[in-house]
Amino acid sequence: MARPHIEPFVDRDVPFKRMTLPGFPRGMNYKMLSIDRDNGACTMTVQFDGGYKQPPGFSYSDVEILVMEGLLQVGDRTCGPGYYFFVPARVHLPAMSTSRGCLALFMYNQREPNFVESDQDGDRADRSDLVQVSTYDDMPWMTPTLHPATAPGCLLKLLRIDEKTHAMSFLYCMVPGFWQDNISYHDVAEECYHIWGTSWMMQFGDLPTGGYFWRPPFINHGAFASEYGILGFGRTDGELYNHFHFHPWSTPEENKERAAARLLRRKPELYRWIEMHGHNHPTDFDFSGR
Ligand SMILES: [Fe+2]
What we know:
Layout: E1 6-10, E2 17-18, E3 28-35, E4 42-48, E5 52-54, E6 57-58, E7 63-70, E8 72-74, E9 77-79, E10 83-87, E11 96-98, E12 102-108, E13 116-117, E14 131-134, H1 135-138, E15 154-161, E16 168-174, E17 178-180, E18 183-185, E19 190-197, E20 199-201, E21 205-207, E22 211-215, E23 224-226, E24 230-236, E25 243-245, H2 252-266, H3 268-276
Antiparallel strand pairs: 1-22, 2-3, 3-4, 4-12, 5-11, 6-13, 7-10, 7-12, 8-9, 8-11, 10-14, 15-16, 16-24, 17-23, 18-25, 19-22, 19-24, 20-21, 20-23
The protein binds fe (ii) ion (FE2).
Protein backbone atom coordinates (compact mmCIF):
# COMPACT_ATOMS: atom_id res chain seq x y z
CA MET A 1 0.00 0.00 0.00
CA ALA A 2 1.97 2.94 -1.23
CA ARG A 3 -0.20 5.80 -0.13
CA PRO A 4 1.41 9.14 0.73
CA HIS A 5 1.45 10.54 4.26
CA ILE A 6 -1.79 12.46 4.84
CA GLU A 7 -1.98 14.03 8.27
CA PRO A 8 -3.85 15.83 9.55
CA PHE A 9 -6.86 15.89 7.22
CA VAL A 10 -10.45 16.73 8.19
CA ASP A 11 -13.20 15.59 5.84
CA ARG A 12 -15.57 18.29 7.14
CA ASP A 13 -13.34 20.81 5.34
CA VAL A 14 -14.09 19.50 1.82
CA PRO A 15 -17.35 18.94 -0.11
CA PHE A 16 -18.73 15.61 -1.31
CA LYS A 17 -18.26 14.68 -4.97
CA ARG A 18 -20.60 12.50 -7.00
CA MET A 19 -19.41 8.93 -7.60
CA THR A 20 -19.44 8.53 -11.38
CA LEU A 21 -17.36 5.37 -11.82
CA PRO A 22 -19.07 2.66 -13.92
CA GLY A 23 -21.41 0.30 -12.08
CA PHE A 24 -22.36 2.59 -9.18
CA PRO A 25 -25.95 3.88 -9.14
CA ARG A 26 -26.68 7.61 -8.79
CA GLY A 27 -26.91 8.89 -5.25
CA MET A 28 -23.48 7.85 -3.96
CA ASN A 29 -21.29 10.78 -2.90
CA TYR A 30 -17.73 10.59 -1.63
CA LYS A 31 -14.81 12.44 -0.09
CA MET A 32 -11.44 10.89 -0.92
CA LEU A 33 -9.40 10.47 2.26
CA SER A 34 -6.39 8.64 0.84
CA ILE A 35 -5.53 6.87 -2.39
CA ASP A 36 -2.75 4.69 -3.75
CA ARG A 37 -2.04 6.22 -7.16
CA ASP A 38 -0.46 2.98 -8.37
CA ASN A 39 -3.50 0.74 -8.04
CA GLY A 40 -6.43 2.97 -7.01
CA ALA A 41 -6.84 1.43 -3.53
CA CYS A 42 -8.48 4.08 -1.39
CA THR A 43 -10.43 5.10 1.70
CA MET A 44 -13.49 7.32 1.29
CA THR A 45 -16.18 8.94 3.40
CA VAL A 46 -19.39 8.03 1.57
CA GLN A 47 -22.79 9.71 1.84
CA PHE A 48 -25.68 7.84 0.24
CA ASP A 49 -28.64 10.04 -0.66
CA GLY A 50 -32.04 9.09 0.75
CA GLY A 51 -33.65 6.62 -1.66
CA TYR A 52 -30.32 5.17 -2.84
CA LYS A 53 -30.65 1.62 -4.17
CA GLN A 54 -27.87 -0.69 -5.30
CA PRO A 55 -28.53 -4.14 -6.78
CA PRO A 56 -26.79 -7.29 -5.49
CA GLY A 57 -23.17 -7.44 -6.57
CA PHE A 58 -19.49 -7.75 -5.78
CA SER A 59 -16.16 -5.94 -6.16
CA TYR A 60 -12.85 -7.19 -7.54
CA SER A 61 -11.24 -5.70 -4.42
CA ASP A 62 -11.64 -6.54 -0.74
CA VAL A 63 -14.00 -3.87 0.60
CA GLU A 64 -14.43 -2.70 4.19
CA ILE A 65 -17.50 -0.70 5.21
CA LEU A 66 -18.26 1.02 8.51
CA VAL A 67 -21.69 2.63 8.88
CA MET A 68 -21.41 5.84 10.90
CA GLU A 69 -24.80 7.62 10.61
CA GLY A 70 -28.24 6.58 9.35
CA LEU A 71 -29.42 3.11 8.36
CA LEU A 72 -28.13 0.97 5.50
CA GLN A 73 -30.33 -1.96 4.48
CA VAL A 74 -28.23 -4.85 3.17
CA GLY A 75 -30.54 -7.69 2.18
CA ASP A 76 -32.55 -8.43 5.31
CA ARG A 77 -29.98 -6.79 7.62
CA THR A 78 -30.70 -3.30 8.90
CA CYS A 79 -27.25 -1.86 9.54
CA GLY A 80 -27.06 1.14 11.87
CA PRO A 81 -24.09 3.11 13.22
CA GLY A 82 -21.16 0.85 14.05
CA TYR A 83 -22.10 -1.90 11.58
CA TYR A 84 -18.91 -3.24 9.97
CA PHE A 85 -18.36 -5.37 6.87
CA PHE A 86 -15.20 -6.98 5.54
CA VAL A 87 -16.23 -8.21 2.11
CA PRO A 88 -13.55 -10.29 0.37
CA ALA A 89 -12.99 -9.72 -3.34
CA ARG A 90 -15.67 -11.32 -5.55
CA VAL A 91 -17.96 -12.13 -2.59
CA HIS A 92 -21.36 -10.68 -3.41
CA LEU A 93 -23.60 -8.76 -1.04
CA PRO A 94 -27.37 -8.63 -1.45
CA ALA A 95 -29.14 -5.45 -2.59
CA MET A 96 -28.28 -2.34 -0.59
CA SER A 97 -30.57 0.63 0.07
CA THR A 98 -31.20 3.51 2.42
CA SER A 99 -34.50 5.33 2.67
CA ARG A 100 -33.28 8.41 4.59
CA GLY A 101 -29.57 8.49 3.73
CA CYS A 102 -26.49 7.00 5.33
CA LEU A 103 -22.90 8.09 6.12
CA ALA A 104 -20.21 5.38 6.00
CA LEU A 105 -16.50 4.73 5.53
CA PHE A 106 -15.66 2.70 2.41
CA MET A 107 -12.24 1.13 1.88
CA TYR A 108 -11.13 -0.58 -1.33
CA ASN A 109 -7.96 -2.45 -0.45
CA GLN A 110 -6.38 -3.59 -3.72
CA ARG A 111 -7.78 -1.42 -6.50
CA GLU A 112 -10.09 1.45 -7.42
CA PRO A 113 -13.77 1.43 -6.40
CA ASN A 114 -15.61 -1.01 -8.66
CA PHE A 115 -18.94 -2.77 -8.61
CA VAL A 116 -20.27 -5.69 -10.65
CA GLU A 117 -23.98 -6.44 -10.51
CA SER A 118 -24.44 -10.12 -9.66
CA ASP A 119 -26.62 -12.29 -7.45
CA GLN A 120 -23.82 -14.81 -6.91
CA ASP A 121 -20.14 -14.83 -5.94
CA GLY A 122 -17.45 -14.46 -8.59
CA ASP A 123 -14.76 -17.01 -9.37
CA ARG A 124 -12.39 -17.89 -6.49
CA ALA A 125 -14.42 -15.93 -3.95
CA ASP A 126 -13.67 -16.95 -0.35
CA ARG A 127 -16.88 -16.37 1.57
CA SER A 128 -15.34 -17.78 4.78
CA ASP A 129 -13.49 -14.45 5.24
CA LEU A 130 -16.69 -12.38 5.18
CA VAL A 131 -17.18 -10.34 8.38
CA GLN A 132 -20.56 -8.75 9.20
CA VAL A 133 -20.91 -7.45 12.75
CA SER A 134 -22.75 -4.77 14.70
CA THR A 135 -19.69 -3.51 16.55
CA TYR A 136 -21.35 -1.03 18.92
CA ASP A 137 -23.93 -3.58 20.11
CA ASP A 138 -22.25 -6.97 19.88
CA MET A 139 -18.59 -6.49 20.82
CA PRO A 140 -17.10 -5.50 24.21
CA TRP A 141 -14.32 -2.94 24.67
CA MET A 142 -11.03 -4.67 25.45
CA THR A 143 -7.79 -3.50 27.00
CA PRO A 144 -5.22 -3.91 24.21
CA THR A 145 -2.88 -6.85 24.74
CA LEU A 146 -0.10 -5.20 22.73
CA HIS A 147 3.32 -5.01 24.33
CA PRO A 148 4.72 -2.39 24.76
CA ALA A 149 1.26 -1.15 25.76
CA THR A 150 -0.44 2.19 25.28
CA ALA A 151 -1.34 4.19 28.39
CA PRO A 152 -4.43 3.10 30.39
CA GLY A 153 -7.65 4.51 28.92
CA CYS A 154 -7.11 3.55 25.28
CA LEU A 155 -9.47 0.64 24.53
CA LEU A 156 -9.97 -1.56 21.50
CA LYS A 157 -12.51 -3.62 19.58
CA LEU A 158 -10.67 -5.84 17.13
CA LEU A 159 -12.92 -6.18 14.08
CA ARG A 160 -10.63 -8.21 11.86
CA ILE A 161 -7.08 -9.50 11.81
CA ASP A 162 -5.56 -10.97 8.66
CA GLU A 163 -4.25 -14.39 9.65
CA LYS A 164 -1.23 -14.15 7.34
CA THR A 165 -0.14 -10.50 7.58
CA HIS A 166 -1.67 -9.61 10.97
CA ALA A 167 -3.08 -6.45 9.37
CA MET A 168 -5.80 -5.21 11.72
CA SER A 169 -9.04 -3.28 11.49
CA PHE A 170 -10.31 -1.99 14.81
CA LEU A 171 -12.42 0.50 16.70
CA TYR A 172 -10.59 2.33 19.43
CA CYS A 173 -11.49 4.89 22.03
CA MET A 174 -9.69 7.21 24.38
CA VAL A 175 -11.49 7.90 27.63
CA PRO A 176 -11.95 11.54 28.73
CA GLY A 177 -8.70 12.84 30.19
CA PHE A 178 -6.54 10.32 28.32
CA TRP A 179 -2.90 11.23 27.98
CA GLN A 180 0.30 9.47 27.03
CA ASP A 181 3.62 11.25 27.30
CA ASN A 182 5.86 9.23 24.97
CA ILE A 183 6.42 9.22 21.21
CA SER A 184 5.47 6.26 19.07
CA TYR A 185 6.18 4.94 15.61
CA HIS A 186 5.45 1.64 13.90
CA ASP A 187 7.05 -0.52 11.20
CA VAL A 188 3.67 -0.71 9.41
CA ALA A 189 1.35 1.90 7.93
CA GLU A 190 -1.38 3.18 10.25
CA GLU A 191 -4.73 4.73 9.29
CA CYS A 192 -7.35 6.37 11.48
CA TYR A 193 -10.67 8.18 11.17
CA HIS A 194 -12.28 10.07 14.06
CA ILE A 195 -15.95 9.05 14.22
CA TRP A 196 -16.39 11.38 17.17
CA GLY A 197 -14.23 13.56 19.36
CA THR A 198 -10.96 15.45 19.38
CA SER A 199 -7.51 14.25 20.34
CA TRP A 200 -4.18 16.04 20.25
CA MET A 201 -0.78 14.94 19.06
CA MET A 202 2.38 16.92 19.54
CA GLN A 203 3.38 16.85 15.85
CA PHE A 204 -0.04 17.32 14.25
CA GLY A 205 -2.17 19.29 16.73
CA ASP A 206 -5.90 18.67 17.30
CA LEU A 207 -7.70 16.05 15.22
CA PRO A 208 -11.47 16.61 15.52
CA THR A 209 -14.56 14.63 14.46
CA GLY A 210 -14.07 13.76 10.78
CA GLY A 211 -10.30 13.89 11.24
CA TYR A 212 -8.23 11.38 9.32
CA PHE A 213 -4.69 10.25 8.72
CA TRP A 214 -2.83 7.74 6.59
CA ARG A 215 0.62 7.46 8.11
CA PRO A 216 3.38 5.43 6.44
CA PRO A 217 5.79 3.45 8.66
CA PHE A 218 8.49 4.99 10.90
CA ILE A 219 6.88 8.43 11.38
CA ASN A 220 6.90 9.84 14.92
CA HIS A 221 3.54 10.54 16.54
CA GLY A 222 2.82 11.48 20.15
CA ALA A 223 2.69 12.60 22.91
CA PHE A 224 -1.11 12.22 22.96
CA ALA A 225 -4.03 13.73 24.89
CA SER A 226 -7.82 13.97 24.69
CA GLU A 227 -9.88 16.18 26.98
CA TYR A 228 -13.33 14.69 26.31
CA GLY A 229 -12.35 11.35 24.72
CA ILE A 230 -12.66 10.03 21.17
CA LEU A 231 -14.17 7.16 19.18
CA GLY A 232 -12.10 6.17 16.15
CA PHE A 233 -11.73 3.52 13.47
CA GLY A 234 -8.22 2.36 12.64
CA ARG A 235 -6.28 -0.06 10.46
CA THR A 236 -2.73 -1.25 10.00
CA ASP A 237 -1.27 -3.13 7.03
CA GLY A 238 0.76 -5.51 9.20
CA GLU A 239 1.44 -6.48 12.81
CA LEU A 240 1.25 -3.47 15.12
CA TYR A 241 4.27 -2.95 17.37
CA ASN A 242 4.64 0.22 19.43
CA HIS A 243 8.18 1.52 19.11
CA PHE A 244 8.09 4.00 22.00
CA HIS A 245 10.78 6.57 22.73
CA PHE A 246 11.30 10.15 23.92
CA HIS A 247 13.25 11.71 21.05
CA PRO A 248 10.93 14.14 19.23
CA TRP A 249 13.40 14.95 16.45
CA SER A 250 14.38 11.48 15.28
CA THR A 251 13.93 10.95 11.54
CA PRO A 252 12.18 8.02 9.81
CA GLU A 253 15.63 6.75 8.75
CA GLU A 254 16.85 6.75 12.37
CA ASN A 255 13.61 5.11 13.46
CA LYS A 256 14.17 2.34 10.89
CA GLU A 257 17.65 1.71 12.33
CA ARG A 258 16.25 1.50 15.85
CA ALA A 259 13.43 -0.81 14.76
CA ALA A 260 15.94 -3.13 13.05
CA ALA A 261 18.14 -3.13 16.16
CA ARG A 262 15.12 -4.09 18.26
CA LEU A 263 14.28 -6.91 15.86
CA LEU A 264 17.85 -8.21 16.15
CA ARG A 265 17.54 -8.25 19.94
CA ARG A 266 14.06 -9.79 20.03
CA LYS A 267 14.42 -12.36 17.24
CA PRO A 268 18.18 -12.75 16.79
CA GLU A 269 18.12 -16.12 15.07
CA LEU A 270 15.43 -15.13 12.61
CA TYR A 271 17.16 -11.80 11.90
CA ARG A 272 20.53 -13.45 11.26
CA TRP A 273 19.00 -16.12 9.08
CA ILE A 274 17.21 -13.55 6.91
CA GLU A 275 20.23 -11.26 6.78
CA MET A 276 23.09 -13.75 6.45
CA HIS A 277 21.81 -17.02 5.10
CA GLY A 278 22.95 -16.36 1.58
CA HIS A 279 19.71 -14.85 0.37
CA ASN A 280 17.69 -11.71 0.88
CA HIS A 281 14.28 -12.70 -0.47
CA PRO A 282 12.23 -13.79 2.53
CA THR A 283 8.98 -13.62 0.51
CA ASP A 284 10.31 -16.56 -1.55
CA PHE A 285 9.50 -18.60 1.53
CA ASP A 286 5.96 -17.35 1.99
CA PHE A 287 3.83 -20.19 3.33
CA SER A 288 0.53 -18.65 2.28
CA GLY A 289 0.03 -20.42 -1.02
CA ARG A 290 -1.99 -17.55 -2.46
FE1 LIG B 1 0.27 4.77 16.26
